[in-house]
């Protein structure tokens, strides 16, 4: 099953109520929040409804593992660690990403937050058309991986 990286790029001002509700259902409550969703018809409909506030693209397993390792959090905003994953019978971030792609497990299943708070992109948001992966690379390049 394919996965999608979705990043909210527009704030809460001048966003219609139905679109805001859709963003909340996708765990995108604030600007520069990101989430990983399974690619299916229901999710595609939600993406289409909120297309003016978000960017998205397909994400592969290594990039998913990198995102979870860099920005994954558990309750209390503590960093998601290897020890925490081992307590949930996972060997590391790569195995978690692979099992997420197969649909066997989700971030909520292990007690992690289902969204990622990303820093603003280094150099600002580009004016040209960009994908979620390009924006993600600019955000991670910022160096703030807390």
Quick take:
The protein has one domain (3-141): Ribosomal protein L30/L7 (Ribosomal Protein L30, Chain: A, 2-Layer Sandwich). The chain starts with a strand and ends in a 5-residue tail after the last helix. It has helices at 17-25, 41-49, 61-71, 82-87, 93-102, 132-141, and strands at residues 3-8, 33-38, 54-59, 73-74, 78-79, 116-117.
According to CATH, what is the class?
A: Alpha Beta
Low-confidence stretches: none
Count of DSSP-assigned helices: 6
The biggest beta sheet reads: 4 strands, antiparallel
User: How many strand segments?
Assistant: 6
Rounded to an integer in angstroms, the radius of gyration calculated over CA atoms is 15 Å
In one word, what is the shape?
A: globular
The residue-averaged pLDDT reads 92
Please name the defining characteristics of this protein.
four-stranded antiparallel beta sheet; Ribosomal Protein L30, Chain: A; 146 residues; alpha+beta; single chain; two-stranded antiparallel ribbon; 6 strands; 6 helices
């Amino acid at each position: 099953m394919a996965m999608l990286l979705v990043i909210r790029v527009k704030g809460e001002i001048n966003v219609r109520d139905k679109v805001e509700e859709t963003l909340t259902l996708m765990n995108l409550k604030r600007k520069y929040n990101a989430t990983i969703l399974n690619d299916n018809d229901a999710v595609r409909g939600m993406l289409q409804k909120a297309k003016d506030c978000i960017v998205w693209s397909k994400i592969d397993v290594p990039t998913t593992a990198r995102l979870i390792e860099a920005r994954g959090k558990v309750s209390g905003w503590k960093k998601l660690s290897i020890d925490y994953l081992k307590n949930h019978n996972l060997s590391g971030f790569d195995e978690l990403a692979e099992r997420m792609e197969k649909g066997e497990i989700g971030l909520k299943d292990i007690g992690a937050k289902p969204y990622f708070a990303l820093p603003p992109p280094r150099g600002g948001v580009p004016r040209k058309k960009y994908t979620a992966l390009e924006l993600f690379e600019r955000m991670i390049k910022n160096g703030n991986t807390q």
